[in-house]
Amino acid sequence: MARRAVAVIAISVAAFVAALVLLPLAAVLWRAGVWPALAPGDGQALWFTLWQALVSASLSCLLAVPVARALARRRFFGRGALITLMGAPFLLPTIVAVMGLIAVFGRSGLVNQGLGAIGLAPLSVYGAQGVILAHVFLNLPLAVRMILQGWQTIPAERFRLAGSLGFAPAQVARHLEWPMLRSVVPGAFAVIFVICLTSFAVALTLGGGPRATTVELAIYQAVRFDFDLGRAAMLAGVQFALCALVAVLIWRAVSTPGFGAGLGRAPVLQVRGLWHGLADALAIGGAALFVLVPLAAIGLRGVPGLAELPDAVWQGAARSVVVALASTALTVPAALVLALRVARGGRGAGLMDAVALLPLASSGLVLGTGLFLMVQPFAAPSTLALPVTVAVNVALSLPFVYRLLLPEARVLLSDYGRLSASLGLRGLAWLRLVALPRLARPLGFGAGLSAALSMGDLGVIALFASDQTATLPLVVQRLMSAYRIETAAGAALILVGLSFGLFWAFDAWGRRYAAV
Amino acid sequence: MRTSILAAGLSCIAFAAHAQTPVLTVYAGDYFTSEWGPGPAIESGFEAFCGCDLQFSTGDLLPRLMLEGARTQADVVIGLSTDVLARAREAGLFAPHGQDLAALTLPVDWPDDTFVPFNWGHTAFIYDTTRMAEPPATLDAMRSLPDDVTVVIQDPRTSISGLALVLWVKAVYGDQAGAFWADLAPHILTVTKDWSESYGLFTSGEADMVLSYTTSPAYHIMAEEDLTKQAAIFPEGHYFMAETVGKIAATDQPELADMFMAWVLTPEFQKVIPAANWSLPAALPQADWPAGWSDLPLPEKVLFLTETQAEALRVEAVEEWRAALSQ
């Protein structure tokens, strides 16, 4: 009974997500009536998009492994705060993140001032290296959190067993850590790869010009400038195809580690030795500097603007918080059901898994345009601005929450499935006693991400928004267009603060109630 | 309980009164209606005499109109800039304006029978006098800037000011536009999606010059009392841009729409434009500009491409730009 309910809800969620993402594309295509061929510059754009996404995602994941390992096996003052702050870059509106990076790595940034002081030639952040730097800055923390979660799900008993068997670190890595990484890293890679695939403003601003053209930029041009809807739909279709390909590859690469259940005590990973200590200190220190210095720069930039924030900022902020909470309340249960269903395997699990990655590959502009076309015959789009924002936020943040829950849902079912069955634990009792405590950590983290992400996006809503429905990111944009750059920086700081506050509250809840 | 019935009754009356007031729906750009844009003053100014309710509806202008087509709710559209007029006209949604354009004070002829300009300006490179003592004196000098000078511009594929820049260069250099871009390329720090991102990079000291408008210094002078931001004025001429108002042919409020179009050309409307829109009024003699605006350095020569010329050159000019900067 409960299982059937899960199956039905999971199929509904997957159908909703697929419909919300694919129907607008179909609407745009239908309106355009033609399916054009690729234009001459598109090959170059596609190539740049692909390779920068590949390099950015690989670097983010590779660098995240030592950082996550160091965080998993060291205890130090401020560790919890650092882990929470690690969530912040990912939540930044892209333009704010770019400004923070430029304050550190830009022409007159801290790094170049330092290099100048010791007589070295300046480094340029503008170019492919800047695009990759920004993508690693935005996504490394996400990868760290996802992989750290993996370390925390290896039962403490396995580490103790390894200890009593006298395993050297290399053997621990081979028997415990490598299998765990194989189950977690492919998912993290997939999410980050697809995020970087659809990157646009970051790539353009730091890419230094048309060399760094991405497919998303070509879509923007097609919709906003050339009004060539067929071309926009075709390019959006190319993005989906790439995403689907990645989803298939990842589905095949993932394996469940099969450590078996533990008693749920926090693992104690003791690694002695100077070299390991130094390596861990370097990993944690390096990551902390890399993430925190640009964040501090953003804070400093925003402070002067806080003095005279107009009312519109607070109204926008209130709307954004409501939208974020509504989106989260819908996203988290949907992602949980989907993850439990896919973790169970069987027919259709692979398809649902692919559907859950799909929204990441969707172009915000095409999505917004398609929804506008779909809504317009029935109602004035501006009256539906906030509901549409919520629906889109649910679709766009579901992949993250789902991806966080999936590895742990698999472990949960393989470890506790039989015990629960023999105890006759089912339905809500099973959810309350078994699933929620075991999944509290990724649920909290996922809810935090979902809320914070829903504070952000404005690409989709540009066609719908009116004055009465302007969310905070739109207000920031309007301030910037009116030369109020200082005030805009202040409003952006409020946006970052609120996003981070929501994220922190949910994440702290998850970590507090986590059984492991 | 009693008060809530009373409140309900009052709101019914208010609603009925509201329902009798005709509504003029004006589509405007996103920046337009915020409290720091020209929208609020325009709304209260018009409502003072029109006996109507002016409602702005903001968002992407042209894409939205094209998507809505004949179904559009708009009566009037304000803010379409000169370089997109050809495509707006092609959509076939607009009616002739029927206004007498004698009041226009533009530096160019305006024979258009559909769109009425309400503001104008030119593209220009803005520099900071504290960082650049000797700005380039001509557009051609931009080709031989000192090695360490950096410029940020906007992408002509995503931004209207970026498009104006490539048309500007095309208007001055013609077939040699590609060579201009090749010479400027080493100085282009980066290209941004929108004007605001470029301008942010410039004001935060990341770039020495930014592509903006001749009127940009006015904001710094009048709102911040900062005299260090200046436009480099070039003898080759500066590219002219205007924003326009158009009346939707299928409007259900044709009289109100005409009334609004006529009001756009009056001094009362025009005086709002400089300080709220940071651009020049289209129908106001220079002597009547608000204090400080007449002192703004403006170019003597204005370059203007008609929409047909601009549309014919657009694809080629953008491609030359892209090719030169992709090297």
From TrEMBL, chain A:
Task: Report which superkingdom the organism of origin falls in.
Answer: Bacteria
TM helices/strands, residue ranges: 47-68, 80-106, 126-148, 184-206, 232-254, 274-300, 320-343, 355-378, 384-404, 445-466, 487-506
Q: How does the protein associate with the membrane?
A: Multi-pass membrane protein
The ABC transmembrane type-1 domain sits at 46-251, 317-504
Q: What's the chief localization of this chain?
A: membrane
The subcellular localization recorded is: Cell inner membrane
Q: Which InterPro entries match?
A: MetI-like (IPR000515), MetI-like_sf (IPR035906)
Name the UniProt key words of this record, in alphabetical order.
Answer: Cell inner membrane, Cell membrane, Membrane, Transmembrane, Transmembrane helix, Transport
Q: Which CDD domains match?
A: TM_PBP2 (cd06261)
**What PANTHER family does the annotation carry?**
INNER MEMBRANE ABC TRANSPORTER PERMEASE PROTEIN YDCV
Q: What is this protein called?
A: Thiamine/thiamine pyrophosphate ABC transporter permease ThiP
To which species is this protein native? Pseudotabrizicola sediminis
TrEMBL record, chain B:
Q: Which UniProt keywords apply?
A: Periplasm, Signal, Transport
Q: Which domain of life is it from?
A: Bacteria
Similarity annotation: Belongs to the bacterial solute-binding protein 1 family.
Q: Which organism is it from?
A: Pseudotabrizicola sediminis
Q: Which residues form a coiled coil?
A: none
What is the name of this protein?
Thiamine ABC transporter substrate-binding protein
- InterPro entries listed in its UniProt record: SBP, ThiB-like
A Pfam family reported for this protein in Swiss-Prot or TrEMBL: SBP_bac_1
Cell location = Periplasm
**NCBIfam families per record:** sfuA (TIGR01254)
Presence of the UniProt keyword Nucleotide-binding in the record = no
Write the lineage as a comma-separated list.
Bacteria, Pseudomonadati, Pseudomonadota, Alphaproteobacteria, Rhodobacterales
Q: Kindly indicate where the leader peptide sits in this chain.
A: 1-19
